[in-house]
Amino acid sequence: MPFRRQPVLPGGLGVESREQPALSGDGRLLASLVDRGGRTTVLLQERRSGRELPLRHLRNRQPHSAPALSWNGRYLALLVQQGGRRQAVIEDRATGQQHPLWLPAGQEPQSLSLAPDGQSIALELIQGGSRRIQVFSLTGLLEPDRAPGLRESGGGPEQP
User: Fold this and answer.
1) What CA–CA distance (Å, rounded) separates 73 from 22?
2) C-beta neighbour count of 130 within 10 angstroms
3) Short-list 30, 36, 28, 75, CA closest to 59
4) Mind listing the pLDDT tens digit for each residue in 68-98?
5) Which of 2, 25, 94, 130 is 20 to 30 A from 56, alpha carbon to alpha carbon?
């Protein structure tokens, strides 16, 4: 019997137009970009209830690109407009801190992907008209946000 994909009906997510969705690793939270009053903003919601969750540091900043969530949704990473430039930032929802990721002059982020455990982030960067991908370690900046039951260390040597 072939596998049939069926959409999961969102509960309480409203009918407003949304773009660039991101789910937390556990599927509990949904982040997306919405247009409110002519201004694009990020919206974070509990997926089942539709309840909006506050984002303390992003109220006055206009997101530029899709958000990314860690496994349990503790960390929300996204690109925000900072003057005439885009900047990658991570909001720690547990502590209320915001962590800007400072890049050398001339490098501008275009998109990002946050590792589920929050320990690294991949950025697509533009510098001098060329694009490249760079992965940055967040170890020491962010606590791990691991799925329940995961061990702290691997079960053997890394594969080449």
Assistant:
1) 10
2) 7
3) 36
4) 999 999 999 999 987 788 899 999 999 989 9
5) 25
Number of other CB atoms surrounding residue 156 within 10 Å: 6
The 3-state secondary structure of 4-49, one letter per residue: CCCCCCCCCCCCCCEEEEEECCCCCEEEEEEEECCEEEEEEEECCC
Structure tokens at 131: 């694009």
Going from the C-alpha of 159 to that of each of 115, 121, 127, 128, the distances in angstroms are 19, 21, 33, 35
- At 71, list the tokens: 């496994």
pTM above 0.70, yes or no: yes
Structure token digits, residue 133? 């991908």
Q: Which CA distances in Å does 24 have to 42, 73, 81, 106?
A: 14, 5, 23, 31
Query: What is d(CA 44, CA 63) in angstroms, rounded to the nearest whole number?
Result: 13
Calculate the CA 137 to chain-centre distance: 15
